[in-house]
Give the backbone structure.
Amino acid sequence: MTRTVPWSDGSWTNDPVDVTTSDDGLHVTAREGSDAWRITSYDFIHSTEHALLSTFEPESAIEVQFRLDFAEQFDQAGIFVKVDDESWIKSGVELSDGEESLGAVVTRGTSDWSLSPVPGWAGRLVTVRGSWSGNALTVRARVDDEPWRLVRVAPLIADGPVTAGPFCCAPTRAGLTVHFTSWRITPPDAGLHPGD
């Protein structure tokens, strides 16, 4: 069964500068320097992301939609799935070295990072979907109503509660406002590949 998650159901990991709800969604203004990362390559730990999280159950999927309107290095938004402070996954679109790229950071003690450019996505509606089935989170994304594309298959094994929801960060600047248009919980994907 598919259901819309009310914005009021979530709790922020870190309060944004401003949050406004309206008929067209949620507008979130990120703090300058906000980010989520652990150790790898940069030797720092950042846990200042703005993630609006609620309970995420096994054998379900989270979908978050937002309008892609980034301007500065590392502006980012998408989904955040949290097991604990050292185990989490963020996935969505990030502006890196001048181009919008679809990617994910998977963190289990230390972070890794993958990106793939998505030219032509700017100004459009992006949906990021995380499907938790068995021991894996399968992340897919699309722009408008185009076909889903696979972003990442990552381990998701938890002994306790898992939370998930929309997130945004602005590591290099003030003034990033992300317009989230929907947050839904749906049944998980039927399989990893079409036809499964």
Remarks:
- The radius of gyration is 15 Å.
- The chain has one domain: 13-184.
- The longest strand covers residues 87-96.
